[in-house]
Amino acid sequence: MTATDPALTALSQRWCALSLLHGRIEAHLERALETGHGLSVREYSLLDVLSRQHSGPGGHLQMKQVADAVVLSQSATTRLVTRLEDRGLLTRYLCDTDRRGIYTDVTEAGLKLLAEARPTNDSALREALDEAAKNPELAPLVRVVEGEPVTV
């Protein structure tokens, strides 16, 4: 294959379309969450991921797992956790069975804010997808996100 190979060009165009769709959705969510709840997309995602933990075996996520879930480096995730902890939305404590392990849990205030922000997130996501579906380049990707099997 060469750099001008039509298959590579098509692949590059699909990648650009996917990147464009992601950027538009994220920007729309960011505006809605920030305006309505004072949360960034990353903060909302972190609260959402951590709210799904449980106390049983394997129920708490390690910081690397949290970082992977919110698509940030471990250091950026730690800074994000610290910011939310400073706002009273998260709390950290030592693991009972491994004193080197630190757990992060969502506080009652964090759960309340997450519950208030979830409808905003869902509505903004729907709006962003509906708008993107009007673009013929993005419409097939929107259908994939919505769960429709599509050949691209």
Share of β-strand residues: 5-15%
Mean pLDDT: 90
Tally of contiguous helical segments: 6
Helix content: 55-70%
By DSSP, the count of extended strands is 2
Class by SSE composition: mainly alpha
- Spatial strand sequence of the major β-sheet: 1-2
User: Gyration radius, to the nearest Å?
Assistant: 19 Å
End-to-end distance: 20 Å
Give the SSE string: HHHHEEHH
Which term fits the overall shape? globular
Regions with pLDDT < 50 over 5+ consecutive residues? none
* Largest sheet: number of strands, sense, barrel closure: 2 strands, antiparallel
Summarize, please:
By secondary structure, the protein is mostly helical. The chain has helices at residues 6-37, 41-51, 63-70, 74-86, 108-132, 139-145; strands at residues 90-94, 102-106.
Q: Can you offer a commentary on this structure?
A:
The chain is mainly alpha-helical and 152 residues long. The chain has 6 helices and 2 strands, in the order ααααββαα. It has helices at 6-37, 41-51, 63-70, 74-86, 108-132, 139-145, and strands at 90-94, 102-106. Strands 1-2 form a two-stranded antiparallel ribbon. A hairpin with a 7-residue loop joins strand 1 and strand 2. Helix 1 (6-37) packs across helix 5 (108-132), helix 2 (41-51) crosses helix 5 and helix 3 (63-70) packs across helix 4. The chain is globular.
